[in-house]
Design a protein that fits this description.
By secondary structure, this protein is α/β, with parallel strands linked by helices. The protein folds into two domains: about 5-145 and about 295-324, Medium-chain alcohol dehydrogenases, catalytic domain (Quinone Oxidoreductase, Chain A, domain 1), CATH 3.90.180.10; about 145-270, NAD(P)-binding Rossmann-like Domain (Rossmann fold, 3-Layer(aba) Sandwich). It is built from nine helices and 18 strands. The strands form four sheets. Strands 3, 5, 6, 9, 10, 17 and 18 form a seven-stranded mixed β-sheet that branches. Strands 13-12-11-14-15-16 form a six-stranded parallel β-sheet, sandwiched between helices. A three-stranded antiparallel β-sheet has the order 2-1-4, with no helix packed on it. Strand 5 (about 65-70) and strand 6 (about 80) form a beta hairpin. The radius of gyration is 19 Å and the shape is globular. The chain binds zinc ion (2 copies). One zinc ion (ZN) binds near residues 44, 46, 83 and 144.
Amino acid sequence: MSVPAAMRAMVFDGVRQPLRLEQRPVPVPGSGEVLLRVLACGICRTDLHLIDGEVEIANPPRVLGHQIVGVVEGTERVVGVPWVGWTCGTCEQCLGGHENLCPNARFTGCDIDGGMADYTVADERFCFPVPAAYPAPHAAPLLCAGLIGFRSLRFCSDAQRVGLYGFGAAAHILIQVAIWEGREIYAFVRRGDTVAEEFARSLGATWAGPSDAMPPVALDAAIIFAPDGGLVPLALRALKPGGRVVCGGIHMSDIPSIPYSELWDERSIQSVANLTREDGREFLELAPQVPVQTQVTSYRLEQANEALADLRAGRFSGAAVLIP
Ligand SMILES: [Zn+2]
Ligand SMILES: [Zn+2]
C-alpha cells in the first residue's frame, strides 16, 4: 500500500477548544524516525488535562494521542508508541537510568505530534514491539494506562493489600497484574458509581466501595489514579503504618492540608512521572503472560471529541480507543 499525500488528524488549537479535524500532509520521518500508519490510538485522562490547560502544550497546533499502535510503513512490523517520545540521553537523569525525569524529554501528543491521525512519525528508539496476542485496539491502552499503572505498582514494592482510587483504564489493567502477583485489590470509586464497583468486583477486587469510605482492613499501599488531591488524605487514613500512597496521574487538584499525625508512622506519599523504556519492555513482556485483557470502547478518529467527553463523564468502563 503506497502512502497517500494527505491524511486526517485531530488537532489541538488551544485550551478548552474542541479538537479540530484537519487534512494535512502525511509527515515525513527524519533521521532515526519511522513513519507509522496508525491502527489504533488510545485516549487518556492526560488528553483532558492537555485540553483543559492543566498540562501545557507549548506550541499548538498539536496532534494529540500518546497510546499509539501502528504499522511501520513498508514493513509488517506493528509497534507501540508511549507518552515519552524522546529523551536527550546525555543529562544526569538519562545517564542515571531515570530517563522518565529527563528535563529535555519530549512527550508524544504534547511536544511532538501524536497518534490521533492516519499517520504519525516516531523515534524508532521509543517504539516498542506490540505482543502478537493483542489486536491493535486492545494493545493501545497498554501503552499508557497499562505502563503508568505498572510503574505505580512497582512503587508499592511487596504490598499485599493495595487500594486503587479511581477505577478507569489504568486500574482495570493493573488489577489483573496485581492479582496475578498474588495481591488483594480494594477498589475505590465515586460514591454512587455502582457500575464501576461491579466492574472492579468482576475483575477480582476483594472489596469495592466509595472513595470516602474506609476499607474493611488497613491497606499496605494505595494508588490514586483519579485527579483529585482530596483523595490523598483519605488514602493515607486507609493505610497501615509504613504504608505508601502512590499518585499515578500527571495532574491532580491541590492536596488539602493534614495534621502531621496522619503521615506519621512512616507513611509516605510518592508521585509517578512518565515512564522509562525499561518499564515499557518489562510490562509488554508481562502483559501476555498474565494475560492482561483490556476492555475497550472504540470510536472513529473523527469522534475524538465525543470519546473525550465520554471519558470526562465516565460513560464507559475500561479504556477508549480511536480507530483511524
Ligand atoms: Zn496517558
Ligand atoms: Zn536527558
